[in-house]
Amino acid sequence: MAHPEQLTEGAGPARAARLNSVAAWAFVVGGALFAVGAAVAQFGSGDPTGSASLYFVGGLFFNTGGYASLLQAVNTPAGTGWRWWSYEPMRVDWTSAFLLFAGTLVFAVNLLDSFLQGLTVRQVNRLIWAPDVIGCVLFLVSGYLGFAGMRDRARPDVRARGLDWWVVAVNQLGSVLFMVSALAAFTRPATGSPVNETVSNWGTLTGALCFSLGGMLQSAERP
After folding, report:
1. Whole-angstrom distance, CA of residue 58 vs CA of residue 73
2. pLDDT of 4-17, one tens digit each?
C-alpha cells in the first residue's frame, strides 16, 4: 500500500485522505465478512452457499480496497494531476499496490467459481483452489515489496517502527495465514476431501481478522 508521506499534491491532501480512508475501511469490512464466512463454514450448518456468499461480498470490499491502494500509488508523484491509472513497474510502491489489487481480482475468480456445482476434484482444484493460491502469492509478494520500500524497515527496535510498518506487517501476517488456509484446502484426488478443512477455515478466519486490524491501523494514518 502507498505510504502517507509519499502522497503529495498529485492527489491533493483532502483527496489523499479520502483515498486512505476508503482503502482502510474497505479492508476492515472485507476482512470482517471473510471472518464471518469462515466462522459459518466452521461452526454453521454445513451449507457452503452461506459462507460462499459472505466471502463473495467480502471480496468486493477487498477489490475496492485494492484499487484504492493502487490509486494512492498512481497519484503519488507531485504535480501530475489526478490519474485513474498508470504503468510504473520500476516503482516499488506502485508494483506493491498493483500486485495487491491483482491479488484481489484473482480471489474474485476463486470466489465466483466456488458457487459452481457438480465439479470434479480436478475442476475444483483448477477453478477454485489454484486461483486461491495465486491470489495468496500475489498478496505475499505485495507485502514483501511493501517492506522493501520502507525507510525504517532496518530499525532494530520494533517499537520505533512507524504506523505504516505495522500496517504492512499485520497485513503480511494475514497473507501468510491465507496461504496456510489455501494449502489446507487442496482437494485430495484419492479421497475427494480437503487436506484439512478445519485448518483452512481457521486460517481464513484469523487471516481475515489481520486484514481488518490492518485496515483499522491504516485508518489512523494521516496522508
Report:
1. 23
2. 444 444 457 788 88
